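A favour between colleagues. Tell me how you read the following sequence-structure pair.

===
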Amino acid sequence: MTIETLIEVVPPPATPFEAFDGPWEPIEAELGTVLPQDYKNFVRLYGNGSFMEFLCVHTPTSGSIYVRLAPEVRTICKNLLIEDDLPYPLWPAPGGLLPLGKTDFGDYLFWLPRGPPADWKIVVWGRGLGQFEVFDCDLTDFLAGLAIGDMIPEDFPSHMLPCDHLFRPFSDWPARE
């Protein structure tokens, strides 16, 4: 379970936008946990952008607070506290879901931080069905699975493949008027 699987399926951009290579200590101190190495490799190689034109992985630094990891962790957890019968605790509770991304459709991606970071699973909360799906893989294997169609959360659009841009840095998006 390394980033090589993702690189084979979705090559990283030649010039990643808002890539991050550390230092990780302040980010991890703010979150209260060490983060998985595949995530660190991902934000270093891919930076900030969109997978399949609808999914964004939060990055440690960004010009936008809407994709910056720590503020999004706080906001998403606060917003989900109103939900009834959550099957998992939320960050900052020990072992609580730790948000790591979101879709344009209002779905959230989380780490299930149980055990060492290399063993954390991916959890998707689909806004449409309001349910949690657990994927027994790390972030980069999850993204690779999405790109080849092997791993599709129930609430994700059925028409997401084929896709013109499996990954597109936000710097490449057309300006909005």
Notes: The chain has a mean pLDDT of 88. Strands lie at 49-51, 55-57, 98-103, 108-112, 121-126, 131-135, 167-169. The chain has one domain: 4-172.
